[in-house]
Amino acid sequence: MREKDKCRGCLSAGNRKGRYGVRCGWKSCSEHRKLVFKYCYECPKFPCTKMNSLEKRYVEKYKLSVIENLNYIKQHGEDEFIKRENERWTCKKCGNVLSVHSNYCLNCKTEYK
Q1: H helices then E strands: how many in the chain?
Q2: Cβ distance 39 to 29 under 8 Å?
Q3: What is the dihedral of CA 96, 100, 102, 103, to 10 degrees?
Q4: N or C: which end of the chain has fewer CB within 10 A?
């Protein structure tokens, strides 16, 4: 949802386009290039140093665990994860998509936890 260096997501084929996609460290991970897998949890090195660094930053700044999300997908599948996240990241007041980077709805300005 950010305006600068937009990311289309790890699973998007179009994520290689644009300045950010070309230099995305996650899509160009050396393990990912050697092995064929869809999610980082499939990697024998999961969670790697890079993942642990991202985890620490996201837990501290946004109270969100990337590793827990990946483990949830592993246990329950993509569809259940997407369903859960759609419920979690939809504004209860206006129905707009919420951003993890903000504590309020960017559309109606309602605060959320």
Answers
A1: 5, 0
A2: no
A3: 80
A4: C
- The residues pairing with 90 across neighbouring beta strands, listed in sequence order, are 97
CA atoms within 13 A on the CB side of 24: 21
Q: For residue 107, what are the contacts with CB-CB under 8 A and spacing of at least 6? A: 91, 94, 96
pLDDT in tens, 30-72: 666 666 778 889 888 899 998 999 999 999 998 999 999 999 9
Q: CB 51: neighbour CB atoms within 10 A?
A: 19
- Would you tell me the crossing angle of helices 49-62 and 66-76 to the nearest 10 degrees? 110
Q: Is residue 68 classed as helix, strand or coil in its secondary structure?
A: helix
Share of the chain above pLDDT 70, in %: 70
Sequence ranges of the domains in the chain: 13-76
